[in-house]
Each structure stands twice: as structure tokens, then as C-alpha cells.
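Format notes (please read before filing issues)

Several people have asked whether sequences and C-alpha cells are stored in separate files. They are not. Every record keeps both together, in the order shown below: the sequence lines, then the C-alpha cell lines. Line labels are part of the format and must not be stripped during preprocessing.
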Amino acid sequence: MRPQRLADLLTLGALALLALSAYLTWVTADPGSGRPVVDFNGYSVTRAPVTLALAGLVAVVVTKLAGTALRRILGVLIAVLGAAAIGVGLQVRPGTTELSRLRPELSQVVTDNVVLSTGPAPWLALAGGVALLLAGLVAVLTAHRWKRPTDRYERAPATSKQPDQGADQWKAIDAGQDPTL
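Then the structure lines:
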């Protein structure tokens, strides 16, 4: 598999995992005393995973238009975005005071004790961050082997062994012949 395609696939995988982490349960709060359990999805807890995934996707798209030096710089940026997503997945654990600001029914005034449990979303954010970090590393290490965006539009250089066909065609037209037949 070409490194450029590998970086694209890793970034798309990271985008899917980070976006999924935003919509799955990040934290579950049980206020006890028969009150309903409150689930907080990743987007209500932190908007960072989705933002980091979209920034990484934009950076990978721009690498397709850039030269080698800019690709390496963007690869470092993508790796930093992946490291930030890993940090968010590992460190964002809101407490009861933060959650009570989002949902007043979890306030210490209303409840004696709120039991918090973590859902699966931080693990998906962590996996998405690892995928984004790997995409950045692949881009940095293999940027010199990626196809340039203008390669498909450039002509092959003319060889000196072949006669100049353009000039021969003009001579044929001057002689009254149709060179396209």
C-alpha cells in the first residue's frame, strides 16, 4: 500500500472513531434515590475530539496539494493533533460539579451522592488519537515519496531519437496533405 493512501485511511479511521466518541456515552451519572440515570455523550462533555478530527482531515487534504517540505510540516501538525486527541481521551473526566452545571438535577443541593461511571467513548477517542498520530508520522516519514499534485499533468520530455512530429505535420499541411489520415 502506498504511504499516501495509508495516511488517508488512517485519517479517515481517526475521523470515524473521534466522531463516534462524540455521540456515544462518555460519562454516566447516577444520582441515586430512585432518580433517573443521566448519560452524557462526548459532545456534551468536550467538543475537542470532533474538532481535532476535522482539523486533521483538513490537514491531510491540504497535504495532497503541498510540496514535500509543507507535507512534512503538516504531518507534524497531524501528529500533534493526534497527541492532543490521545490526551483528551485519557484526561477528560468531568467531576460532579462540572456535570451539575450541565444538568442541575445532579447538584449536591439536590442529591447526597452522585456515582459516576465512564462509558466507552473515551476509549474510541484514544484509538482515534492513535490513528491520527500514526497518520502524521507516516506523512512526515514518507512525504518525499508521495506523488506531486502536478505529476499527472506534466508531459514526458521529448527524446532526440524521434523526429519532431509537430513540424512534420505542419510540413504535410503546407504540402496539401491531411496528416490526420
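For reference, the curators noted about this record: The helical segments are 3-23, 42-45, 48-63, 68-91, 96-102, 121-142, 165-174. The beta strands are 25-30, 38-41, 115-118.
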